[in-house]
Amino acid sequence: MSEVVRLKPDDAERYVRLRRRMLADAPWAYSADPETDSALDPSRVAANLANGENGILAVGYGGYLVAALGVARNREVKLAERAIVWGVFVEPSHRGKGYGAALLDRAIELARGWPGIDYIDLSVSGGSPAARSLYERFGFVAWGTESEATQIDGRRYDEHHMTLRLEKAR
Asked: Which of 53, 69, 79, 140 could bond to 74 as cystine, CB 3.0-4.6 Å?
């Protein structure tokens, strides 16, 4: 398996290319859309990657990124004990190789290193049962469902909100 790396600001263009593929391949899995997604702006991505309490972890293959996951410390003062996992994606041709689990494991490790982080939160689309299963294997617990949270081409998808208390992580 390829190595999980933490992207640096000069990786922003590579990440933006993968992000475009994410939004095209699995539009139901993201609240973002290609027309307004701030993660498609390389300068903004580079600035976020320069912040020590943000991270995009990725797996490369043949010079391209084939899997990625974002993790960030919550910026709200009253929620500073929480980190957020976002934008998880593995290229369809690279699924089943353990990349998603490797990214999630590394994200948990990264968040543990941030002082005061006790929880990691994420949301997963009802259209992504394999992703939800992965999160459950790592100990994430669903705490609520937002019915019909997103609509793509006339079809609506529930969004499941999940959390992991770090002391219970594997």
From this structure: 79
Options 3.40.630.30, 3.40.50.720, 3.40.50.1000, 3.40.1190.20; CATH of 4-168:
3.40.630.30
Residue whose C-alpha is closest to residue 142's, from 122, 123, 162 = 162
Give average pLDDT by consecutive 10-residue segment, the chain, 170 residues: 90 94 87 81 91 91 93 90 95 95 96 94 92 96 92 89 79
> Residues with Cβ < 8 Å from 88, sequence gap 6 or more?
68, 69, 70, 100, 103, 104, 122, 131
Domain residue extents for the chain:
4-168
